[in-house]
Design a protein that fits this description.
Elements (H helix, E strand, L loop, with lengths): L8 H4 L8 E4 L9 H10 L4 E4 L9 H7 L3 E6 L9 H7 L4 E4 L2 H13 L3 E4 L13 E4 L2 E7 L3 E12 L4 E2 L8 H7 E12 L18 E4 L6 H6 L6
Parallel strand pairs: 1-2, 1-8, 2-3, 3-4, 8-10, 10-11
Antiparallel strand pairs: 5-7, 6-7, 8-9
Helix pairs in contact: 2-3, 5-6
């Protein structure tokens, strides 16, 4: 019998080690696995490399993980947004490293990592500082930059619902990087708002097949990052 369910968020992240590479889903607030991130803060793993679209907001979620000095490097597309306070300050002080990746390139690097593709060529970043030090090739008269696929030790992802086999469905834009991060991580850890009975999801509607999910934790009333930020909440 296959059952991917984990009893608590603390148990779900308990074995994450110092120095791990972790993919964290989310497009701003949409799809951000706040409860799993806060459990990782409590767990205390340090020197983490985090792959995410942005660097979090306020002093909760990913921003709180960074503020707690657990992240040594960010690989992301938007290191500074309207409510990002923690990362810009640490970066200016030289206390955290940044690898800036255009958003489409970031998505494709993650997808490639999950598909077993070591590298690919893209025209994005040609003739910019982001292309410095990378292999450049010409195809059919156009210049391209080589980018490497990204794989991770763990991914932290949020979905709308899943069954105990780990089959997942998402809520609109909250899907964002979740499906490809599940494929690109050695251990994918997913928080779902609702547990569905086996067979309740039409196979044609499954977005992430259970084979890509290692652990599933049910968080029925997940925190809304925007509300926490508006209330100036802090974690821990």
């Amino acid at each position: 019998m296959i059952d991917k369910q984990i009893n608590s968020v603390a148990q779900a992240v308990a074995d994450i080690k110092d120095g791990s590479t972790i993919m964290i889903g989310g497009f701003g607030e949409a799809g951000s696995p706040i409860e799993l991130i806060h459990a990782l803060i409590d767990q205390g793993a340090k020197n983490l490399t985090v792959v995410s679209n942005n660097t979090g907001s306020g002093h909760v979620g990913l921003a709180a993980l960074i503020n707690n000095k657990q992240v040594s490097k960010m690989i992301c597309s938007f290191p500074k947004s309207a409510n990002s306070k923690v990362f810009p300050e640490l970066y200016k002080k030289g206390q955290i490293e940044l690898e800036l990746v255009p958003q489409g390139t970031l998505a494709e690097r993650i997808r490639a990592g999950g598909a077993g593709i070591p590298a690919f060529y893209t025209a994005t970043s040609v003739n910019t500082t982001l292309a410095e030090g990378k292999e450049i090739r010409e195809f059919d008269g156009q210049i391209y930059v080589m980018e490497h696929g990204i794989k991770a030790d763990y991914s932290l992802v949020k979905c709308k619902a899943g069954d105990r086999y780990g089959n997942l469905i998402y809520n609109k834009t909250a899907r964002n990087f979740g499906p490809i991060m599940c494929t690109a991580a050695e251990t994918s850890i997913v928080q779902a708002e609702k547990l569905l009975e086996l067979g309740a999801i039409d196979p044609e509607h499954v977005v992430t097949p259970g084979i890509f999910v290692k652990r599933l934790i049910i968080v029925p009333n997940p925190a809304a990052e925007s509300q926490l930020v508006s209330e100036d909440r802090r974690y821990p």
